[in-house]
TrEMBL record:
GO molecular function: acid-thiol ligase activity
Organism of origin: Mycolicibacterium llatzerense
Domain of life: Bacteria
Domain AMP-dependent synthetase/ligase span(s) in chain numbering: 23-407
Domain annotation AMP-binding enzyme C-terminal: ranges: 463-538
InterPro entries: AMP-bd_C, AMP-bd_C_sf, AMP-binding_CS, AMP-dep_synth/lig_dom, ANL_N_sf, ATP-dep_AMP-bd_enzyme
Protein name: Long-chain fatty acid--CoA ligase
Keyword terms, alphabetized: Ligase
Length: 612
């Protein structure tokens, strides 16, 4: 199977994201491009930018970067919460160089590692009044990286600026031309537009480069899906260091002439915004939004006096979708949930369930010009052959959105390296799944060990390294534990030194102090005699992952005052819990247990021992 070839010219599309803005400004000039909410309490009074406004602000930002010393094709590092300035800051960087937007919640040393790898020339960060911790982190980054020639701040005054402080973003931009770029050579479709770090907390930073062609392609491809058709108004509540926020809820509507409603710095974590969610939908006539299952589970009931008929579909991805979340949301709202599958290494999305063709359990069909297959790997982890239809293997993706490899430092600076991840044009995702004869893709699990907490990727190695630094600890394995709210949370299995007395509370305090960010601190600690290993001595986490599921099931049974035998095993490549009630139970209790377990992402069966 030969990967498809695609170019922007084939669909008469713009070459770059800046060209996209220019074309859309010509076509949709005074139409609202962005409604920017300061926070969840101010949804009735947003700041609104038309397409002309946005293009002008992006042009000013690009010219600002050039004037403070950004070389053509240089890298602008963003360390920002979502604010109004974040959009021109990001898109302006792509207009004249490469944007590298980083999660500001990452540990400082990881932020430094990422910006050192990407060769950031200019840093845009929050002023102290906007985010005091973010300002302190930016100052540490600046001190560690002398190659950053200018620091620009967003959101307020800086009373004691460091030497390389160039000024306030808005003030600098206001003094620059909004009419044209001050650069002779424009970016091209094959140039890199963005560097995204993968995961929320990666041990050794992995950075995925995206070309303009890949971002433009995906904005166009998503626009062919029914959820993005017609008059489009997209609600955005994800951070702009995440590919979903940039591609799905920004570039896709901008290419189509739609409108994005940005929820503000806290996004879906803004309690007032979530409480007013359906009124926001009614007020702006939202047609779709994209969120992780956790967000869907937290949404309030639809008020009787609110009209949500504008909403075509809710898009969900990044974590396993529990059956109960889908059932409850669709029953309460009448809005279909559209599952998709993608990853940063493939720019963002690769498959989507077609609107009106729900196949529960499937993540849909490949987007146009993309191909997805399941492959068997040899002993060296390379593709041996393709799996037949319906057989579980490692998913591989080809097409115009596939990245060229992780960024590595080379003799001539950073460059993409396809080693171990790209084989003959196919991206080896590390995810297990199958492809049916009809082309629909089904996920069976993850070959990777990442813990996905509410759509936030956590590398277990960071947890393990933090706990191994405790003097009482000799071995650690961190695994995902199913969670009804977040999908998964970290659970740590710990082996202590002989004679050591560290308790779970002691380890929790240590982890809080040493893990790189709050999301990576385990919620559960289990002190065990040994960590399982394979025949060749490698850590074997599958039994621990099964044990974490077993503990969840037993907890649910205990709350229902029932006892049972619980066995967890892999069935068709996916963890499956078999629950055999010991004392017998009536059908009502059986239904209650099944409903409680339906809130989780694993499969299960519940049987009554007396009914066999």
């Amino acid at each position: 199977m030969t990967p498809n070839i695609w170019t922007p010219a084939e669909q008469n599309l713009p070459e770059t994201t800046y060209d996209l803005l220019v074309r859309s400004a010509v076509r949709f000039g005074d139409k609202p491009a962005l409604h920017l909410l300061a926070d969840g309490s101010k949804w009735r009074t947003p700041t609104t930018w038309t397409y002309n406004d946005l293009l002008g602000r992006v042009t000013q930002a690009a010219n600002t970067y050039l004037d403070v010393g950004l070389p053509s094709g240089g890298v602008v590092g963003l360390l920002l919460p979502n604010t109004a300035a974040s959009y021109p800051a990001l898109l302006g960087a792509q207009a004249v160089g490469i944007v590298n937007s980083v999660n500001p919640m990452l540990a400082t040393e990881h932020v430094i590692d990422i910006f050192r790898l990407t060769g950031a020339n200019v840093l845009v960060a929050p002023a102290p009044s906007l985010d005091a911790d973010g300002w302190d982190k930016a100052c540490e980054v600046l001190a560690a990286l002398p190659e950053i020639t200018a620091l620009i701040t967003v959101g307020g005054p800086v009373h004691s600026p460091p030497d390389r402080w160039a000024g306030d973003f808005d003030q600098l931009c206001a003094a620059r031309s909004a009419a044209r770029l001050s650069i002779a050579t424009r970016r091209s479709s094959s140039d890199f537009a963005a560097y995204f770090h993968t995961g929320g907390t990666t041990g050794t930073p992995k950075v995925a480069p995206h070309t303009h062609a890949a971002e433009i392609y995906l904005a166009w491809a998503l626009g062919t899906h029914g959820a993005f058709g017609g008059e489009l108004c997209v609600l955005s509540g994800l951070p702009l260091f995440h590919v979903n926020a940039v591609i799905v809820t920004t570039l896709t509507p901008l290419l189509a002439g739609g409108t994005t409603v940005a929820l503000g710095p806290l996004g879906f974590r803004d309690r007032e915004a979530v409480a007013a969610f359906w009124r926001i939908v009614e007020h702006f006539r939202i047609t779709t939004f994209s969120a992780v299952p956790t967000v869907y589970a937290s949404l309030p009931p639809v008020p009787d006096d609110v009209d949500i008929s504008s909403m075509r579909a809710g898009i969900v991805g990044a974590a396993a979708l529990p059956t109960a979340v889908r059932t409850q949301f669709e029953a309460a709202t009448g809005i279909p949930m559209i599952e998709g599958y993608g990853l940063t290494e493939a720019t963002c999305a690769s498959t989507f369930v077609p609107l009106g063709d729900a196949r529960y359990g499937s993540v849909g069909l490949p987007l146009p010009y993309q191909q997805v297959k399941a492959v068997r790997l040899d002993d060296e982890g390379r593709p041996a052959d393709d799996c037949p239809a319906g057989e579980v293997g490692v998913l591989a993706i080809s097409g115009p959105a596939v990245f060229p490899g992780y960024l590595r430092q080379g003799p001539n600076g950073p460059a993409p390296d396809p080693t171990g991840v790209i084989e003959d044009g196919w991206l080896l995702t590390g995810d297990l799944g199958r492809v049916g004869a009809d082309g629909f893709v089904y996920l069976s699990g993850r070959a990777k060990d990442l813990i996905i907490r509410g759509g936030h990727n956590i590398d277990p190695r960071l947890i393990e390294e933090a706990l191994l630094s405790h003097p009482d600890v000799v071995a650690v394995a961190a695994v995902p534990r199913p969670d009804a709210h977040s999908g998964e949370v970290p659970a740590a299995y710990v082996v202590l030194r002989a004679g050591a007395t560290a308790s779970a509370d002691t380890l929790r305090r240590w982890a809080t102090a040493h893990c790189p960010e709050p999301a990576s601190v385990p919620k559960f600690f289990h002190i065990v005699d040994a960590i399982p290993v394979t025949a060749v001595g490698k850590v074997h986490k599958v039994p621990l992952a099964h044990d974490s599921i077993r503990r969840v099931v037993l907890q649910e049974l205990e709350e229902s005052k029932l006892s049972a035998t619980v066995v967890v095993a892999d069935v068709d490549g996916r963890a499956h819990a078999t629950v055999q009630l010991v004392d017998g139970a009536n059908h009502g209790i059986l239904g209650t247990i099944r409903n409680r377990l339906s809130r989780y992402g694993f499969s299960y069966e519940v049987a009554n021992s007396t009914s066999a």
